[in-house]
Amino acid sequence: MTREGDALVPEAGQETSDKPSEIGSMSDNSAKTPLEQLVAPRIDASKTQIRLLVIDRDMDEVLKIERSSFQYPWTDIEFRGHLLQPNTRGIVAEMDHRILGVVIYEVGRPHLRICNFAVAEDVRRNGIGREMVQRLQKKMPPPSEISLIVRETNVIAQLFFKSCGFRATDTFSGCYTETAEDAYLMQWQASTAPTN
């Protein structure tokens, strides 16, 4: 699911790998109902540090998030290839020395294009993704825009980015070589920023 421009919604409550996520030890969950056991622990996303990705220090954790998030994950070589381009940056959301999310994006004035976006499975739906999107939005003064390409079947990503002020503006046929799947171009313009 990850060729360039694909984005996985961090707030997704849906499993994206074939492996079930770990809920915790039996003693931790013995007094909880089955529904409570499935709900990720609540964390305060505002306490995450959003910082630049450091390739040599962060790549192992970034690759773990990527592999658990996508059917067709980027490889170490693909990440490094993007990040070594002069106009490409990466940011991570970090808390307690653990990387919780990652965004890879290309900068071109007055445009920023998200190439890859993911949040660790066990902390999704806690606002980590929204914190990263808002950080990018704050960097973009009017009349700037942010864009990304989202798979046609990734409805959760579409809804997440819509909730962040993005809207679908175009369709690309056969965008992905793995599946010949269509994709939507989603865009956010600084003048249409949500008033959070």
Task: Explain what the structure shows.
By secondary structure, this protein is of the alpha+beta class. The protein has a single domain (42-192), classed as Aminopeptidase (3-Layer(aba) Sandwich), CATH 3.40.630. 27% of the residues lie in helices and 27% in strands. It has a seven-stranded mixed beta sheet, sandwiched between helices. A hairpin with a 2-residue loop joins strand 2 and strand 3.
Per CATH, which architecture? Answer: 3-Layer(aba) Sandwich
User: What coarse outline follows from CA principal-axis ratios?
Assistant: globular
CATH topology: Aminopeptidase
Number of domains: 1
Give, in spatial order, the strands making up the sheet with the most strands. Answer: 1-2-3-4-5-7-6
How many distinct beta strands? 7
Mean pLDDT: 81
Secondary structure class reads alpha+beta
- CATH class, please? Alpha Beta
Task: State which percent range the strand residues make up.
Answer: 25-35%
Order of helical and strand elements: HHEHHEEEHEHEE
In CATH terms, the superfamily is Gcn5-related N-acetyltransferase (GNAT)
Largest sheet: 7 strands, mixed
Secondary-structure blueprint of this entry?
Blueprint: H1 26-29, H2 34-38, E1 49-52, H3 55-69, H4 76-83, E2 88-95, E3 98-108, E4 111-119, H5 128-138, E5 145-151, H6 155-163, E6 167-172, E7 183-189
Parallel strand pairs: 4-5
Antiparallel strand pairs: 1-2, 2-3, 3-4, 5-7, 6-7
Brief descriptors of the model:
6 helices, alpha+beta, Aminopeptidase, 196 residues, 27% strand, globular, disordered N terminus
